[in-house]
Automatic annotation (TrEMBL):
Keywords: ATP-binding, Kinase, Nucleotide-binding, Transferase. GO terms for molecular function: ATP binding; inositol-1,3,4,5,6-pentakisphosphate 2-kinase activity. InterPro entries: Ins_P5_2-kin, IP5_2-K_N_lobe. One of its GO terms (biological process) is inositol phosphate biosynthetic process. Phosphorylates Ins(1,3,4,5,6)P5 at position 2 to form Ins(1,2,3,4,5,6)P6 (InsP6 or phytate). It comes from the Eukaryota. The EXKPK motif is conserved in inositol-pentakisphosphate 2-kinases of both family 1 and 2. One of its GO terms (cellular component) is nucleus. Pfam families: Ins_P5_2-kin (PF06090). It catalyses: 1D-myo-inositol 1,3,4,5,6-pentakisphosphate + ATP = 1D-myo-inositol hexakisphosphate + ADP + H(+). This is Inositol-pentakisphosphate 2-kinase. PANTHER family: INOSITOL POLYPHOSPHATE KINASE 1, INOSITOL-PENTAKISPHOSPHATE 2-KINASE. It comes from Coemansia pectinata.
């Protein structure tokens, strides 16, 4: 059956809660994978909005004008704003599907014991009447290999975060550390005690240098946090608390080498880094004054941009970057702010890489070098909220302050390099 486009009405598919397994969640959404027999949705998963437990009694979407429209716009944003920047091949299709309150309530009860403690201040938003179906990126691997062995697919989920440092010209002199130490490395000191700070530097992952990519992946395996997860079939093998155990080191090395080859080969990572940087050339320090001016003058209503605003912004950006001598100083406040928010989406996406089976180390006896088979997709490419701009500024200040408190002089600071 053809997948309906996102402009169609939400599909009406009978859902049975027992057919859905809790898969995972982030800050805003919770995801369930389908285990039933309806061939139309086999291999798909359901993404539902969450809201604060405290506000859930009366439902949280009540104040939203139209949750269906919002989710439809998010799907269009992923395909038509993020897709052209990163490449449409990385974006998964989305289908809107109608939901019943009883189905949501039963999923809530079923998932509760499986959810991580740090996510329990939020729950499924009981007032949403539309959910999003997406292909489960973990699917697609044939269960039996050519040798007849049963295969277990392996999925690596990377949240690569910021791939660049702002130029000295876009940050104030008191924050010049932002041009020497990357956002992730500094942020670690706000998020964790000094002894738990990760050795992972995203700039290594984005470097295009195999040695540095391997180093980045090894550091992630030592301190996965929410930046690395490994699933074997649908079961988690490494998550935020897990480190690679001694006996798994050899297995990890084979997987790591294969993922390093894919990171190196795919244009995705260099596009992510380039677009993050080009869409954020003013830094939040330059954006906050534009935001205040635009809101005060009324040139930017302080409401979430519409889908046509986003489409215009990405079209303007693309056109401008085709002209060699253009720069962001020539654009309107609104354009600069929307570009910054698109960059913020790109700094927060995750990348899923699925292999049909756990790779094995190549030996000199392997006569014909084989290309790894894999599927790759970008998830969580939703628009960010305009109203969060002042928060982004305060968070930036806080991150720099904490970092300088822990590492006050040059000798104690990291040297991140692009
Ligand atoms: O600001 P950051 O870099 O901490 O990013 C937030 C993420 O924190 P992280 O540092 O990756 O653990 C945060 O992730 P966690 O909840 O910490 O797993 C969210 O992704 C958040 O986005 P949103 O509010 O859900 O749209 C992210 O917020 P945005 O900055 O993308 O709005
Ligand atoms: N298409 C997919 N295929 C497989 N797994 C997925 C897919 N989409 C999401 N997931 C899983 O569900 C988890 C939560 O999804 P998602 O990242 O969309 O949540 P979020 O709340 O929007 O995240 P964030 O906290 O970054 O805003 C992911 O980390 C991933 O493990």
């Amino acid at each position: 059956m053809a997948v309906p486009s996102s402009v169609d009405l939400p599909e009406s598919i009978p859902f049975e809660p027992n057919d859905w397994n809790y898969k995972g969640e982030g800050n805003e959404n919770i995801v369930f994978s389908y285990r039933g027999s309806n061939t139309d949705i086999c291999g798909w998963l359901l993404r539902l909005s969450k809201c604060d437990v405290a506000t859930s009694v009366n439902g949280c979407t009540a104040h939203r004008l139209d949750d269906t429209q919002r989710k439809r716009d998010h799907a269009t944003y992923s395909t038509s704003v993020i897709g052209p920047l990163l490449g449409p091949e990385y974006i998964l299709p989305q289908r809107l599907v109608a939901l019943k309150p009883d189905f949501l309530r039963r999923l809530q009860v079923k998932s509760e014991p499986l959810r991580p403690a740090h996510r329990l201040h939020k729950q499924i938003d009981m007032s949403q009447d539309v959910g999003v179906l997406m292909p489960n990126a973990f699917r697609g691997a044939p269960p039996v290999s050519s040798s007849g062995r049963l295969r277990q697919s392996v999925t690596v989920e990377l949240k690569p975060k910021w791939g660049f440092m702002p130029s000295l010209g876009s940050v104030s002199p008191r924050n010049s550390v932002k041009s020497r130490v990357c956002r992730y490395c500094m942020h670690q000191f706000t998020k964790h005690a000094s002894q738990d700070v990760s050795g992972f530097c995203p700039l290594d992952l984005y470097s295009g240098d195999r040695h540095r990519i391997v180093r980045a992946l090894d550091s992630l395996a030592q301190s996965p946090q929410n930046n690395l997860r490994v699933f074997v079939d649908d079961h988690i093998a490494i998550d935020r608390h897990g480190k690679i155990s001694e006996e798994c080191v050899a297995q990890w090395e084979a997987l790591r080498d294969c993922i390093a080859d894919i990171v190196l080969k795919e244009p995705l990572f260099s596009r992510l880094k380039q677009c993050q940087r080009m869409l954020d050339s003013l830094d939040i320090e330059g954006i906050l004054p534009l935001y205040k001016r635009a809101v005060e003058s009324g040139s930017l209503a302080n409401v979430q941009p519409s889908i046509s605003d986003w489409l215009t912004a990405v079209a303007d950006f693309t056109q401008r970057t085709e002209i060699a001598d253009s720069n962001v100083a020539e654009v309107t406040d609104k354009q600069a702010i929307l570009e910054f928010l698109i960059s913020t989406t790109l700094k927060d996406v995750s990348v899923l890489i699925t292999l049909p089976e756990w790779p094995v180390h190549k030996t000199s006896l392997d006569s014909v070098p084989t290309e790894p088979q894999y599927a790759i997709a970008v998830i969580d490419s939703d628009p960010k909220k305009l109203a969060k701009i002042p928060n982004y500024f305060s968070k930036d200040e806080k991150i720099v302050k904490h970092y300088l408190k822990h590492c006050p002089d040059l000798d104690s600071q990291q040297q991140c390099s692009e």
